[in-house]
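Review form for a predicted model. The reviewer records the input and the model, then writes brief findings.
Reviewer: anonymous (R2)
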Amino acid sequence: MSNTRTYNQIAGQKVSRLEAISDGVFAIALTLLVLDIKVPVSESIHTEGQLFSALCSLVPKFLSYFLSFMTLGIFWTGHATQFTFIERSDRHLNWICLFFLLFVSVLPFTTAFLSEHIHFKLAIGLYWLNIFLLGLVIYIQWNYAYTRHCISGTENERQITDKLIRKRIVTAQALYAAGALLCFINNYLSIVAIILVQLNYALALFTKKNK
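Model under review:
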């Protein structure tokens, strides 16, 4: 029986390897975000007022940094939540996870692009596309793991977990899309709306608690 097995049947079996590389990529991406913020250094700065003005010019970069730090934090939490229940893996789940990490590693670029061109709708559109692709792939990852019976727990527990995770991803993506569309009114309004969505998901501001 073992002689008939193929490489694809034995590849990508260890869930711990996926968790390890995921944490590593997230850690690097979170670190790279801050590298786009440069300390004001200029020979033309001679007064406190000029230095304060130079610091104020960095506000778009700090805003983009905070936005993206929250984004990565939320997706890292979502990814970790899924792998709390994913107990088995295979080659296909491996690659789905790697493609998710691809879009994680791109976020520092879309963040830098947004901070440099914060007044352009294209910059917000590109940033939203990055968020959408992150949401899409993490949804595909969970769907694959669930339908291939890689999830731990009883049947009832799996169904409840499945419903909660799918609902959270779909709802979040709908809110992100609505926030991105606000750029047609005002770019900063769009960014603030996305940040508010993220604060809600990070701090559970509007989550109903069971009594």
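Findings: The chain has a mean pLDDT of 88.
Further findings: The two ends are 54 Å apart (CA to CA).
Recommendation: see findings above.
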